[in-house]
Amino acid sequence: MIGIGVIGYGYWGPNLVRNFAELSRAKLVGVSDLDSKRLALVAARFPGVHTTTDYHELLRDPKIDAIIIATPVSTHFPIAMAALKAGKHVWLAKPMTETSMQAAQLVEVAAKRNLVLLVDHTFVYTGSIRKVGEVVRSADMGQLFYYDSIRVNLGLFQRDVNVISDLAAHDFAILDYLLDEKPIAVTAAGSNHFPGSPENLAYVTLFYNSGMIAHANVSWLAPVKVRQILIGGSSKMITYNDLEPSEKVKIYDKGVSFTDDPGQIQEMRVGYRMGDMWAPKLDSKEALSVEGEHFLDCIEKQQKPISDGQSGERVVSLIEAATSSMRGRGETIYIHR
């Protein structure tokens, strides 16, 4: 049994606590939060689990092997660093840290101490995105042309991060999972409509050497919640709607072809292929459960997580670049690897 301690029982923490309490190979040992009223909810639902307002108690507990961190982003780095130095494996909520420099330090310490560092990019553990990954990485898609995402809703307004860090981070993580190549440049435009608060709306574009282009529309100011992605290739196209109760992923055998044949110069040089559409069967298991089991596997078998610290660092780097571009009114920021 792998002993688990959870730090943070606010917005995302209850989901993490429930998930690890239900995993047969894990034992939920303790939960920490600064709010004693929140801890009372833990004690009522999970009798026998130690609760404390001082997270250092969890770091000192020899029964705890891994620390789950779901606190404000500004606290991720010091808590995660303390956990790693205490010899604990670490699961970090997204975004991993405030800066890529902090993320790089956590990656380095985890590697030196041979500890697992997983960043909670939950979408890459969903059956939908895993299926999209299978298709995108297969020869069926042909050359990838674009990734177009709409990720909008009304709220939740964040105090410590902007909308890029909150919502576009999901698309950055998905792209990092789907593609073999990494972006070379980013531009972003956005706005803060309420003085004193972070930007609440942004349009982000990523550029790749292959000609692939990715775009994300993210907002906390939409009247409805939308979670849609379009992916276009030379042979196949994919739609993904996370809010669909079924058939979240649809694959279309549609595309275009061009000809420069002089013999057809009088004819239309663009051909349109209109083939079938199918919705593949998806694994319906809860993503957090899949991710939790994967975390335990990585600890037991000393494996590298799918969403490891390095992928988390790349996402933070993109957040930094996109935010810099947004505040420079769309200035192109080049990514140096």
Q: Taking all residues together, what is the mean pLDDT?
A: 94
Which strand-content bin applies to the residues?
Answer: 25-35%
Tally of alpha and pi helices: 9
Q: Order of helices and strands, N to C?
A: EHEHEHEHEHEHEHEEEEEEEHHE
Question: Helical percent range?
Answer: 25-40%
- Rg, rounded, reads 22 Å
> Describe the biggest sheet?
9 strands, mixed
**Coarse shape:** globular
Terminal CA distance: 39 Å
> What order do the strands of the largest sheet run in, or round the barrel if closed?
14-13-12-11-7-10-9-8-15
Label the structural class: alpha/beta
List how many beta strands DSSP finds: 15
Describe the overall structure:
- α4 packs parallel to α5 and α5 packs antiparallel against α9.
- The strands form two sheets. The chain has a nine-stranded mixed sheet.
- The chain is α/β, with parallel strands linked by helices and 337 residues long.
- α2 links the parallel β2 and β3.
- The protein is built from nine helices and 15 strands.
Quick take:
The protein has 337 residues and is α/β, with parallel strands linked by helices. The protein is built from 9 helices and 15 strands.
Please write out the topology.
Blueprint: E1 2-7, H1 13-22, E2 26-32, H2 36-45, E3 50-52, H3 56-60, E4 66-69, H4 73-85, E5 89-93, H5 100-112, E6 117-120, H6 127-136, E7 144-154, H7 163-178, E8 185-191, E9 201-207, E10 213-219, E11 221-233, E12 237-241, E13 249-258, E14 270-278, H8 287-301, H9 309-327, E15 333-334
Parallel strand pairs: 1-2, 1-4, 2-3, 4-5, 5-6, 7-10
Antiparallel strand pairs: 7-11, 8-9, 8-15, 9-10, 11-12, 12-13, 13-14
